[in-house]
Amino acid sequence: MSDESRPAPADGPSGGPAEARTAAVIPAAGRGVRLGPGAPKALRTLGGTPMLIHAVRALAASRAVSLVVVVAPPDGAVEVKSLLAAHALPERTDFVVVPGGASRQESVRLGLDALPPEYDVVLVHDAARPLVPVDTVDAVIEAVRDGAPAVVPALPPSDTVKEVTPAAAPGAPEPVVATPDRSRLRAVQTPQGFDRQVLARAHAEVTENVTDDASMVEQLGLTVVVVPGHEEAFKVTRPLDLVLAEAVLARRRLNDGF
Ligand code: C5P
């Protein structure tokens, strides 16, 4: 979908410099075992459309995002390419598909490796968060363009959180070690946004297994900032999350109808 004649990339949500080009990497190579048996999680449907397509559209909805790199299951790149071809996506956005790896971290790194040099802001977004609103995407981009090396959207947890000594056997009682002050805790979502050089360095230098990209940047000793997340940016992990996601889609359809 590359086109020499395409218009110059749009200014960012803050009217930032057009040369700060933004790409999104969507790791979608996980099997999603906690959802139960079936297709890889990203290929399961919500409202009849694969979760991955929802996630791609959610990121491409930002006028600042001019490239989306989808990291497919290792043996599923061809299938993901045809999926993208079969669904309506914005003309102004380029799409690339690369095969993923054994861990989320490796999948993200393979996605970063596919970025052309001209992109200097990178978003990393879980395919498993298909319903993130565009305002959240834009808020993350804006904070990176304003100078933060790493930005994460997050919400205060609604539950009190306990630190425990994990049980050796599933279901066994677990001793509580501490109750962190909830007012200081945030539950982190995606897209996480980065200065591209910072994220590339984090992936080159941090070898410990982590569950999000921002924590790799923390390990470099750099500042990560939080911006407000959104309740609709939740991760589809367990079967009940699918029910919630269908309900959110139904509510959007109803609202769009008026
Ligand atoms: O497993 P979890 O829900 O934390 O995965 C978060 C995201 O990372 C999902 O979108 C999943 O597809 C992706 N992932 C990946 N490669 C892996 C494992 C997970 O791209 N090997």
From TrEMBL:
PANTHER family for the chain: 2-C-METHYL-D-ERYTHRITOL 4-PHOSPHATE CYTIDYLYLTRANSFERASE, CHLOROPLASTIC (PTHR32125)
Compositionally biased region (Low complexity): 7-20
Family to which this protein belongs: Belongs to the IspD/TarI cytidylyltransferase family. IspD subfamily.
Annotated site residue numbers, Transition state stabilizer: R34, K41
Enzyme Commission number(s): 2.7.7.60
The protein, known as: 2-C-methyl-D-erythritol 4-phosphate cytidylyltransferase
Pathway(s): Isoprenoid biosynthesis; isopentenyl diphosphate biosynthesis via DXP pathway; isopentenyl diphosphate from 1-deoxy-D-xylulose 5-phosphate: step 2/6
Provenance organism: Streptomyces daghestanicus
Lineage, top ranks: Bacteria, Bacillati, Actinomycetota, Actinomycetes, Kitasatosporales
Catalytic activity, as annotated: 2-C-methyl-D-erythritol 4-phosphate + CTP + H(+) = 4-CDP-2-C-methyl-D-erythritol + diphosphate
EC primary class: transferase
Gene3D superfamilies per UniProt: Spore Coat Polysaccharide Biosynthesis Protein SpsA, Chain A
Matches recorded under SUPFAM superfamilies: Nucleotide-diphospho-sugar transferases (SSF53448)
Disordered: region residues: 1-20
GO molecular function, one term: nucleotidyltransferase activity
Alphabetized UniProt keyword annotations: Isoprene biosynthesis, Nucleotidyltransferase, Transferase
Site description Positions MEP for the nucleophilic attack, residues in chain: R182, K235
Function text: Catalyzes the formation of 4-diphosphocytidyl-2-C-methyl-D-erythritol from CTP and 2-C-methyl-D-erythritol 4-phosphate (MEP).
Keyword Transferase in annotation: yes
